[in-house]
Amino acid sequence: xxxxxxxxxxxxxHAAAVGxxxxxxxxxxxxxxxxxKLSKSQMAKTPPGNTLQPTALVHEAYLRLLGGNEPSxxxxxxFFAAAAQSMRQILVEQARRKASAKHGGGHxxxxxxxxxxxxxxxxxxLALDDALGRLEQIDQRxxxxxxxxxxxxxxxDEIATALGVSVPTVEREWRFSRSxxxxxxxxxxxxx
Length: 192
Prior knowledge:
192 residues; mainly alpha; 8 helices; 70% helix
């Protein structure tokens, strides 16, 4: 989108976050299609048996984005990074609830119609969240690259724009982060 549209999304997001109902009603149609696409991408990575629907994930993330503290979004890319972060948190919270003993976390769900599932189990989502948390402690920008690439589905060019760095920097940090996360997920006891 062009710069004026970026400014409009940013201005509307700021106004909506501080309680301007008119701005909130104008913002949602501008970002809904992209949030829905982001939500579908997120939901494709969740384990089977998930009861949360993409539309509900969009609405919950949108409410969290506008209901929290006053945002400091630097533009459209930053807004969608925050949306991806909110969706990630919602999915991780749901995975933790499902994994709890109260919700049958100690029992394994068996799908009698399929022998193998292509989607990762809830434990993998939680392990990824923990690994990403460790990466955030080491280098926040590299963690943001992962968030924008993996969770928001942005291209390297879009990530570079959102973070104010060069495309080669994004590519280098993406390669490092993938390797770092792979090491942690392969051997959780490693000090990667």
